[in-house]
Amino acid sequence: MLVVLGATVFVIAVVIVYALWKLSAVVLKHTGIVAFITNSRWDVVRDVYGALPFIYGTLVTSLLGLILALPVSVGLALFLTEMSPPRVRSVVSFRIALLAGIPSVVYGLWGLFVVVPVLRSKVEPFLAKTLGFLPLFRGPMVGLGYLAAGVILAIMILPTITTISIEVLRTVPLSLREAALALGATRWETIRIAVLPYARAGILGATILGLGRALGETMAVTMVIGNSPTISASLFAPGYSLPAVIANEFAEASGALQTGALAALGLILFGVTLLLNIAARLLVRLSTRGPRRVAA
After folding, report:
1. pLDDT score of 155
2. I need a surface site. Which of 68, 101, 222, 225 has the fewest CB within 10 A?
3. 106-128: string of b/e by CB count within 10 Å (b at 16+)?
4. Is residue 208 scored above 80 in pLDDT?
């Protein structure tokens, strides 16, 4: 019975890929697979379709969200498991669970009316003034763009990474902590040399799950990224993501080529997610094995 259930999941994935491939075959034949992925022009009127700006926007916003969320999530998990009093732990854990239950459209509205004005008036001018020598922090400061989408994604994936990291850190044997403390290690040294090495595989898995959540997020990103099919090195610039363009254009798609192009974008997003999961398994496996010992 369990084998049948496991095979059903695989069959569903194959059916999804087949349906997307069948829909996208028209535009892939018209444009070419390589040209569709590498072309940066998206012109519905002239039936010219290129996925590169959307792939770029998806990867940039997801990685930015992960960079912002990971230190906070791991630090928060360490604080709640290693340092905080029980009363503080219960209060903060409840707030984290509450963040995980907020709908993405609410995040998008909050980002549009709160985060974007703050970025436009305070954060982006400060970054341009202090780090303007970098291409990442140049250009018009309108609030909407990669930076806003990255901040929203960071807040959205923070509960996922934090919750899983807490559960992983709770599995660390107490004997490891006691042994490090008995050898004279401080609390931070105990965390660094005993707790984190034991939990690194689980924390890595939590990170990959958070990145997967960021890659597939649609509504919140659509509302704050600016929805411009362009590629820019500046985080202040507006962009577009794969889920956002599918959500915006699929309902109004006219013609087989536009529908096929959107289905091809879905196929690319599915492929990116699949590669991410494969890489996650490999990294977790390598992290579990740990460094090889050299024989004397």
Report:
1. 92
2. 101
3. ebbebbbeebbeebbeebbeebb
4. yes
